Amino acid sequence: MKLDLRPLLAGDRLLEFDYELPLDIDSEDTASYLFGVGFPSPMKVKGEITNTAGYMRMTLTTSVEYVAQCARCLAEVRGDFSLDLEKTVAPRNLLGDLDENKLDEFAIIEDGFLDIDEQLREQLEMEFPMRFLCKEDCKGLCPKCGKNLNDGECGCDQKDFDPRLEPLRKLLAEMKKEENNK
Q1: What does residue 30 show for φ and ψ, rounded to 5 degrees?
Q2: What does 29-42 look like in DSSP terms, one character per residue?
Q3: Is 36 in contact with 69 (CB distance < 8 Å)?
Q4: CB neighbour burial string for 141-151, b if at least 16 within 10 angstroms, e if fewer
Q5: Residue 49 and residue 58: Cα distance in Å, rounded?
Q6: Fewest CB within 10 A of the end CB: N or C in the chain?
Q7: 99 CB contacts (<8 Å, ≥6 apart)?
Q8: Would you say 91 and 108 are in contact if contact means Cβ atoms under 8 Å apart?
Q9: If you average pLDDT over residues 37-66, what whole number do you get?
Q10: What is the C-alpha to C-alpha distance for residues 82 and 91, in angstroms, rounded to an integer?
């Protein structure tokens, strides 16, 4: 959405906004940080821009529903993600020749309008969790047969294991033995 900031530039003190931003992010794009994540409804964006003697500050809050897969058992995980954003708002001509790293700190006005949608999409990619769990103690899938261990034991022969993990198995057995002796 392009916000018309000409009234603020002319001296108004407050601009409030509230809208929905459709997220047309491809969940199958393996190059995206949001690979495998779906957004069943648009992102809700609510905020304001205040003008205090020519210094403009934008504060906004967003929330969006997501659907992803558990990183251990591949079960569907649904939830809400919220994001808060604060930036200084300035016309491009006042920023001069700031380097790219400094420009990220600003919401830039172009021809009296501010387009914040792309900044919100970028911020979402940067702050969205990399993985999800259906529950904290998710047991995952059996490495041999693929059964979801949250539904119970699989019954397959667990004796086949990677021999490189033998030192770890011994260490775990010793730790259990010490714990039982306490």
Answers
A1: -70, -15
A2: -TTSTTTT-B-SSP
A3: yes
A4: beeeeeebebe
A5: 4
A6: C
A7: none
A8: yes
A9: 93
A10: 28
Instruction: Say whether 126 sits in a helix, a strand or coil.
Output: helix
Question: Which tops the pLDDT comparison, 27 or 13?
Answer: 13
Taking the whole predicted model, whether its pTM rises above 0.70 is answered as yes
Question: What does residue 178 show for φ and ψ, rounded to 5 degrees?
Answer: -60, -40
Long-range contacts formed by 78-81: CB under 8 A, 24+ apart: 79/132, 81/124, 81/128, 81/129
Amino acid making up residue 40: P
Instruction: Specify the amino acid at residue 22.
Output: P
Angle subtended at Cα 21 by Cα 20 and Cα 22, rounded to the nearest 5 degrees? 115
